[in-house]
Amino acid sequence: MYVELHILQNFAPSNLNRDDTGAPKDCEFGGYRRARISSQCLKRAARELFKNGLVPPELMARRSKRLVTLVTEHLKRLGKPEDELNKVALAAFGGLGILFSPTDDGAELKSEYLIFAGLGELRRFAEVCRQEWDTLLRVYEGVWSKAKDKKPSKEAAQKAIARDLRDKLAAALDGKKTADVALFGRMLADLPDKNIDAACQVAHAISTHKVSVEFDYYTAVDDLKPEDTAGADMIGTVEFNSACFYRYANVDLEQLKKNLLGKEPVKATTQEHEEAEGLACKTLEAFLRASVAAVPTGMQNSMAAQNPPSAVFAVVRSSGLWSLANAFAKPVSSQSGDLVKQSLLALDGYWGKLTTMYGDTGVGGKWLCALDGDDVTTLKSAKVSSVDDLVKGVMGAIKFSEQQAGAK
Fold first, then answer.
1. Within a domain: residue 96?
2. 107 and 212 both lie in a single domain
């Protein structure tokens, strides 16, 4: 079963997501230049909102090059000697082919690339370190302390750990019970069998209409300059635009449940299935609410484009996925009236065309919440008064497939 989310969001003048030149990101769609917000930017904004009570801390992950710090902090709380913390953690991660190097000032240890791991995974990893403390300490003294710059090759670091211990360390990083890893997936270059396929897809948001970039010429003056000094003390330009965006995302519930299980469904017990389904429901609700509330942070202090969505449309379906971006292949024009209203009518009409052509037998439910949805026709029966009602409708309509025959 899948859940789709379609959002129309009209932002005031802003530069929410910049390219390498500092200009607002854009793209060509339908033969016209459109404003764009990258999917990565939107996912980041949603993940940050998870921390506001939408997801319990123990179900959250961290994406960082400094994860060794979280492991050593946990080991420190377990009473392990401070002068041995980094040594054991480095040996343990090194056994998996993940190496850390000190920063230029030597204050921190950083991996070669960002690692996305759940706090629960890191605690389980730290527990293995605690159990195998003496062994890992010997590995460090035998390999790491003798290596040039105290950093052996990946091959040497891995060979220094016995296969059974390496498997034990790797098993801790199973990704289970981690909401954001289950949703957005991950890739671990040195542990490909620990890669996780994302349960959700998030599209780049594009404007429903054509756009052009505008420039803000700004100046600043020195408050303490002599009165007889003429002119500004700083000048510059900032590029910005204003656009009504169409945003699309979907969630594969079965993939989400599988990711939260941390194992193949056929190997899970009935209790594990039930627990994973409960976590999947909590994760889905958090994703829906965070996606609706997500606002990119780019240049907000300068422009304060804090504009909530004007329309949210959710669909629960058993199969098939429909982005409604092609509703705007022909750009919406404000000459016909309110740009946001015209965008909603275009989306409403396109949904009608799709259901006429393909039918809607796979659709298990649909809900539309809009600030101004009085003129919709195809989606008139889907209207609800609030986002809360929309979320409740979705959560009441979802269901999981029957547990695998191998579950006990």
1. yes
2. no
Asked if the structure places residue 245 within a domain, the reply is: yes
408: confidence class by pLDDT, cuts 50, 70, 90: very low
Residues with Cβ within 8 Å of residue 50, at least 6 apart in sequence? 60, 179, 180, 286, 290
Contact assessment for residue 5 and residue 249, using Cβ atoms and an 8 Å cutoff = yes
Q: Residue 252 forms beta bridges with which residues? A: 2
> Looking at the domain assignment, is residue 187 inside a domain?
no
Q: Write out pLDDT tens, residues 353-400.
A: 999 999 998 999 999 999 998 899 999 999 999 999 999 999 999 998
Q: In whole angstroms, what is the distance from residue 144 CA to residue 94 CA? A: 9
Distances (CA, A) of 370 to 286, 313, 390: 20, 8, 11
- 380 domain residue, yes or no: yes
What is the count of structural domains for the chain? Answer: 2
Which tokens sit at 358? 């393909």
Please say if the pLDDT value at position 406 is more than 70.
no
Tokens, residue 188: 């671990």
Return the pLDDT at 226. 66
pLDDT at 130 over 50: yes
Record the pTM.
0.91
Reported as a single tens digit per residue, the pLDDT across 10-69 is: 999 999 999 988 899 999 999 999 999 999 999 999 999 998 989 988 899 999 999 999
Per-residue buried b or exposed e for 68-80, using 16+ beta carbons within 10 Å of the residue's own CB: bbbbbebbeeeeb
Contact 398, 343 (CB under 8 A): no
Same-domain status, 267 and 349: yes
Domain edge (last residue) among 131, 162, 177 = 177
Question: Do 217 and 235 contact (CB within 8 A), yes or no?
Answer: yes
Cβ atoms of 287 and 43 closer than 8 Å: no
